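Recall from the previous chapter that SMILES is a line notation for molecules. Here it describes pyridoxal-5'-phosphate.
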Amino acid sequence: MSCGAGVAASAPIRDVRSFDEGNARMITCDSLVYLPFQPTGGALACDGVSIQSIVEHAGTPTYIYSARAIRESYRAIDEAFAAYRHAIHYALKANSTLAILRLLRSLGSRADANSGGEIRVARLAGFAPDEIVFTGVGKTREELEYAIGSEVGTINAESAGELDRIAAIAGAQGRTARVAVRVNPDIDAQSHPGISTGLKTNKFGVPLQEARGIYRARRETKGLRFVGVHIHIGSQITTLDPLTRAARSLVSLALELRDDGFQLEHLDLGGGLGIAYEAQPIINPADYAAAVIPELGRSGVPVVLEPGRAVVGYSGALVARVVDTKCFPDGRKFAVLDAGMGELIRPALYGSYHRIVPVTPRSGAEIAWDIVGPICESSDVFARDRALPPLEVDDLVAILDAGAYGSVMGSNYNRHLLPAEVMVDDGAWSVIRRRQTLEDVLALES
Ligand SMILES: Cc1ncc(COP(=O)(O)O)c(C=O)c1O
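With both inputs in hand, we obtain:
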């Protein structure tokens, strides 16, 4: 059955964007963003490689990534900070598939790991221990023992108690751990509440006003060497003001600590730069650098950046197949995909918006579709009332801007299997993660 033009349940929502068609760059605010998924010859392609031809071999659902998009996004941040000593520690939590990490490492990136597992994956991808910062609000004793034993570059401590545990473990290992304290400045990142981390109601870091005392009280503690200060106020931040205020707070603390005799090696500003999921104005990395470099310059201390989403967000699409269509008497039309919240949970978790496009659009008037997944939860919805051409069973659709916080948040709910992942690079594609099998999942069970 197909759902043709009919009465829309409510006004369709259109993906309005301003494109520089020639080079597939989206113009958002005054920044140019490279968008890898563009129509080529009437069907969607990734960097010119046909999506249809990829999924004929790889199947659906599949994540497809553009290596070029990752390179371009990384370089935009790196070049923006060229005038100031900096290190980019890509945040693995956004996407830690090994091939993506290896690509980023080849560009000069370092790593921000949020768990013992992410440290291990970073090491497997080739990052040296001293290129890794270890963040995370609930580090276990085992994770700390592993991080300290591996001599990771910096452990960003989340509390005074954690610092004391680090000191005890380092002492027992006969080592000195390099540490920074993550401060919570009580700044509203003006992002989604679920991904804001810098308010006093959030669980992250130590209150800014207590940080100096925490450093001072442990200045002579055996096993600790204070090498930095850390802040991260949230993700998908699209206005400069909170980020600038956060940088200012961090630099002021660093100057106080310098007065106290601490010799800091870096100021870690965290990540947070947003991407234009809905063609909204976003922060150009050059504007971000221009806003925070004068603040950083007051200290002269090198900066560490931990971007995740802004590096990989645009690079990925989740390609899925329509497995059913339904028209309800009130006019509501559903297209049910073979991918759902188990593959990409952001819309169900945060109500996040993703552009959705048919891989080979059918002719006919656009109508309002509810694009939903197969999971037995009413929240398993990718989009409501989305204006799209007619859709039929077996059509392919691509859910765009899914490179960050997509595959990493996958689950086996309803015993769905994790999708394959493919990378397109220089006109060719390869599987960078094979599709999970039921045997893979059941291997853990007795
Ligand atoms: C400590 C820390 N650093 C970096 C990041 C990466 O953030 P984003 O992907 O928004 O750049 C996160 C994510 O929330 C984080 O918690």
